[in-house]
Amino acid sequence: MSIDNPPTIEVDQPEEPTNRPAADHRLKEWLSRGYVRRIIALSIVIGLLIIPLAWVVIHFMNLSGAPASAIMVEIERTMFVFTVVSAPLMAITLAILFYSLTGWGRVTGEDPPMQESPAIRTNGTAVVLWIAATSILAGFLVIWGLVELATITSYANGSTPANQQPNGQKAIDINVTGQQWVWTFQYPDQGAVTSDTLIVPINVPLYFNVTSKDVVHDFWVVELGIKIDANPGAITNTGVTPDKLGTFNIRCAELCGLHHAYMQTKIQVVTQAEFDAWVREMGGKRTV
Ligand SMILES: [Cu+2]
């Protein structure tokens, strides 16, 4: 055997798939497939159904009186916007899930193998579209979330104590104490009035100093959209300005023991005159 004539070496090459379309046609080919079109149609239907569904959820939330503050208005708006923005991805996921579950029964042992998937992951257009669309959606949610957080924090008087409010309207200080399994409210500005129902005047900022006597609770004024942990040995602060007359719910939002589910009371938003009358009745003094 001469060195000029090396023996040819047979190497096992994987077989080229014969039914794979050219890369630049894959997206078009993929979109022309019947099952892809059915999944896209199903996604659009589900996506459009999610929006009225989100509206129904908010409608039922509002049956007990929400929104009763500017904070709750912002929270409901954010819930709706987040639902609408995430609806397309949720719809595509549900459509594929639904189609796969219902379509599986049609595949039998007698059927020929399905045509090879056109692998759109190697298609530049598809990759750019997918990354751009999901990045815009995610970026929008981050920016919306940060702006809303800043808005809500400013409505909640941030961490500014009542005597340092910038708007000149003095907030009412209220000390909130959680213990297994009741809430107690004390009004230091009104001569240390104490109550187990929260009575407050409408359109006056409230500033809460929240603590606990035993375990961690969570002070949640449902229709006013504020919620903050009540920790033993520490004081947490939040605030809100109620802008709707009525009786709303206060619940504990932190699993705190056997009767956690019953750790609830009411907030009554009344007129300034009714509030003053109540304070006098409780033996307190009028300050606002
Ligand atoms: Cu609790």
Report the sheet with the most strands, covering strand number, pairing sense and barrel closure. 5 strands, mixed
Shape: elongated
Strand content: 15-25%
Approximately how much helix is present in the residues?
25-40%
What does this structure look like?
α2 runs antiparallel to α3 and α3 runs antiparallel to α4. The chain folds into two domains: 120 residues, no CATH class; 119 residues, Cupredoxins -  blue copper proteins (Immunoglobulin-like, Sandwich), CATH 2.60.40. It is elongated, with a radius of gyration of 30 Å. The protein is built from five helices and ten strands; from the N terminus they run ααααββββββββββα. With 288 residues, the chain is of the alpha+beta class. The mean pLDDT is 84. A hairpin with a 4-residue loop joins β6 and β7. The chain has a five-stranded mixed β-sheet with strand order 3-2-1-5-8, with no helix packed on it. A five-stranded mixed β-sheet has the order 4-10-9-6-7. Bound molecules: copper (II) ion.
